[in-house]
Amino acid sequence: ARAEPEPAKRRERLEAAYAADQQKVWAAYDLVELCAAAGDLAAAEKYARAARDARPGDADVRNVLGNVLVQAGKPREAEAELAEALKLRPAFPQALYNLGLVRAAAGKHEEAAGLFRKAAEADAKFAEAWNNLGHCLARLEEPAEAVGAYRKAIEARPGYGAAHNNLAVALYRQ
Q: Least buried of 11, 124, 132, 158, by fewest C-beta within 10 Å?
């Protein structure tokens, strides 16, 4: 099922594998990705919840569900799942980053900056975390620190166009 190149057939085969044995978390996990990419967030959420229910102590599964809930416009539920992922694995860069996105969207830039910083410190090559840290620091009127974060994003991924643009804007505003 995983090797099927055509998305519709791949989904059909994954759904059959999952229906045959709902403990096949890999099938639910793949269905989440496939459904989300197709814009079927209701199905993605259904499979992400099923994966969480099958493996409640799996930080990766909690993070995936949190991410789907963010996409589905359910930030409170997303925040709860991401917080649970971080209880299970406190230095989980992707969950720290995703929770930072939720907090930033809520206007909680100081909290978001702390989460993005932790994500970037846990994985120094996490360019998006550095870039979003820069955004939060700019919002908090800390331009020199924002410039430093954007430079770290570029260091992590030299071809990261958004970070180059953000650095240019931050330097212009100084």
A: 158
pLDDT at 4: 55
Look at residue 15 and give its three-state secondary structure: helix
Neighbours of 5 (CB within 10 A): 6
Give the list of residues 6+ apart from residue 6 with CB closer than 8 angstroms, or none: none
What's the rounded Cα separation, in Å, for the pair 78 and 45?
Answer: 11
Contact 114, 104 (CB under 8 A): no
Contact predicate 1/13, CB 8 Å:
yes
What integer pLDDT is reported at residue 144 of this predicted model? 96
Is 101 in contact with 112 (CB distance < 8 Å)? yes
Cα separation, 66 vs 6, whole angstroms = 27
pLDDT of 86 reads: 98
Element (H, E) at 105: helix 93-105
Helix axes 59-71, 41-54, angle to 10 degrees: 160
- The DSSP secondary-structure symbol of 77 reads H
Instruction: Assess contact for 116 and 129: CB atoms under 8 A.
Output: yes
pLDDT value, residue 3: 57
